[in-house]
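sorry for the late reply, my laptop died twice this morning and i had to redo everyting from scratch. anyway the thing you sent over, i finally got around to it. pasting the sequence first so we're on the same page, its 234 residues, then the predicted structure underneath. double check i copied it right bc i was rushing
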Amino acid sequence: MSPQAAWDRESLPQGDEKKAAVRAMFDAIAPRYDLVNRIMTFRLDVRWRRRAVRSLALPAGSRVLDLASGTGDLCIDLARGGQRPISVDLSLGMLQADRSGAPRVQADILRLPVPDGSVDGVTCGFALRNLVDLGAFFDELGRVVRPGGRIALLDVGIPRNRVVRVGNGIYFGKVVPRIGALLSDAAAYRYLPRSVAYLPTPGVMLTMLRDAGFADAAHSPLSGGITQLLTGTR
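ok and here's the structure:
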């Protein structure tokens, strides 16, 4: 089954099939990824990333892994904030499109090629729902982040306000796939609104993070809840 067919069928893929489909999808959309993001979020993605970087509250010169780094937007913001980012992504296409100038590593972020407690912080932008095993990912963060280090994880959210939730559902369910089909890959942007189903509730994710060693894990809804930010200290 092709990656496109995996997204279009009624049930979303799981396990190794999901991993292969995600990698192929991001390889395909890498060339126009930034353009589509800016258009479909009305540039709010820029604000969300900067909020995530500020929330790390790490001293200048800290070593920060940006996981599922895409084209390097978060790495750019981290560098501007005085940090030393490393770009890590499963998709070779995304790493080839990375324009941050940060060191780049192709790797499965569920099995990071770094020693225990070796980094000061981790960021991850809008990739939690693309992972095969979210609990294993949080455990991996607990392994690689030093005591006192910080994490900041962004992803899409489900607004609590009914009016905002309905409006957001219509926009991401109907408008965003058309933007994606016009400018990039239709199947990838049909997947976007459906992919929210992969995410546990905020409460469940906070429990998972605390079990992974981030005792003060916190959840912040952004822009009315259409995006969420998870933070924590190791």
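The mean pLDDT is 94.
thats about all i looked at so far, will dig more tmrw
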